Amino acid sequence: MVSRIAPMLRDFMQKESAGGITLIFAAFAALVIANSPLLGAYKSWLDIPIVAGFGGFVIDKPLLLWVNDGLMAVFFFLIGLEVKREVLIGLDPMDALAPLPLGIALGLLIGKQAGILGFAWLAVKTGIASLPESVNWRQIHGLSLFAAIGFTMSLFIGNLAFASPEQVDAVKLGVLSGSTIAAIAGFFLLRSALPTAEEAQAMADPEAKAEPAE
C-alpha cells in the first residue's frame, strides 16, 4: 500500500495547487471540529505550552502562537523569495497590462472599495449602523483601500484556479501590483484624513472652550 500511496503523494506535492488544496481540506476539518464535541480537546491541544531556548534565551508560548507567528513568518519569507525571483528575472512592464494580472489588480482595488465602502454607506443610510465618533468617510475609504492588500487568499485562489506556471506568475504579478497600488493610495488617503492640531486638541478635550476675542 505504501508503494502505491508514495507516488501519488509525490505527484500531488509537485502540483502548483497542492498548497491550496491542502488548505481547503484543513479549513474543512477545522469547521467540522469546531462544531463537534472535539472542540474542547482541540482548544486544549492548541494551548499546549512549547518551550524553545538557547542559553539564557527562552521562548515559552502555546502551540497556537507558534503556529500563527511561525507559519506567517515562513509565508512572508516565501512571498519575499517570489518577489526576488520576479525582480531578478525581470518582467516586461507591459505584462502588468495583460488581461489576467490587470483583472486581478483591478478586482482587488475596485472590488474591496465597492464592497466595504458601499456596504458601510448603505448600512449608515438605512439606519442599521452609524459612523463611530470622530470617524469620517475619508477614513472608511482609506481602510477599504488597505483591505485591498491581499496576498494569502488571492494567491491561494490563484493557485487553485490555474495550473500553468505562466498563469500563476501572472496571478502573482496582478496581486503584487494591486496590493502595492492599494497600499500607496490608502496611505496617502488616510494621511490626508488626519485631523489638524486644533482638531486633535478639541477631540482630546471636548469641553474646552475657545476664549472670546477681545
Helix-strand layout with pairing:
Layout: H1 2-13, H2 18-34, H3 39-46, E1 49-54, E2 57-62, H4 63-89, H5 99-125, H6 137-146, H7 152-161, H8 165-192, H9 197-204
Antiparallel strand pairs: 1-2
Helix pairs in contact: 2-7, 5-6, 5-8, 6-8, 7-8
Please provide a written account of the structure.
- It is built from nine helices and two strands, in the order αααββαααααα.
- A hairpin with a 2-residue loop joins β1 (49-54) and β2 (57-62).
- The protein starts with a helix and ends in a 10-residue tail after the last helix.
- The protein has helices at residues 2-13, 18-34, 39-46, 63-89, 99-125, 137-146, 152-161, 165-192, 197-204; strands at 49-54, 57-62.
- Strands 1-2 form a two-stranded antiparallel ribbon.
- Helices cover 69% and strands 6% of the residues.
- The longest helix has 28 residues, at 165-192.
- With 214 residues, the protein is mainly alpha-helical.
- It is extended.
- α5 (99-125) runs antiparallel to α6 (137-146).
- The protein has a domain at 92-195.
